[in-house]
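Good morning C.,

I know you're traveling, so I'll keep this short. The sequence:
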Amino acid sequence: MALSSDEVERYARHLVLPEVGGPGQNRLKAARVLVVGAGGLGAPLIQYLAAAGIGTIGIADDDTVSLSNLQRQVIHGTPDLGRPKVESATEAVARLNPHVAVTAHPLRLTAENAVGIVAGYDIVADGSDNFATRYAVSDACFHAGRPLVTAALGRFDGSLTTLRPHERGADGLPNPTYRCLFPSPPPPGSVPPCAEAGVLGALAGVMGALMAMEVIRAVTGFGEPLVGRLLMVDARSMRFETLHYAWDETNPLSGAASA
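The tokens, ready to paste straight into the viewer:
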């Protein structure tokens, strides 16, 4: 897949990186990435994926733009109030990079529809804000054999990991699933939503950019992905810590009982 002269100039800073170069940029151009959520995490994630030259970005979101979103959801603007987020995000991508195609999915991913949608992409990046969607997406990625980059935001903290449970690690054991890390959702009402607890706007930008880094790494193959590692960010003390986790043989997806 040859790069046009415009693309060569546009991606020049990637092309001079030996870890990316022409082959890596062509892999980015050929990649299909599904972004779940065009909100606080999805907004910077979509922008950096588009800037990097991902060939096709799918955007799944059933929400509309509200004024309280604009403190952190930087892909949308004041003129977009009331519009579906997939529409304003699609237009933002077109302004940023005309070489990127967007497929809009104006819906919420559920256990019933997620597998069919996920199967049409190479990689999934989940920036959703509710546990039902996170579990539906992670289960769908397992069944479809797709890598998943998933992140979450708190008030002043965030977390990020990459899941490839359809593959095995160097020890021969399966890579962990999302359910190995979080076996079940917390009880209803135990985690207050963003509207009640609040969230630091710039933190969403940090975590969304880190998600983009993991997606680009997964496509081009440089460095070491966050497989079996949960990156935790504390914005109050500006600390980055890593928790290691492993395959749980009791998990319902790839555990010993499922074999």
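Safe travels,
E.
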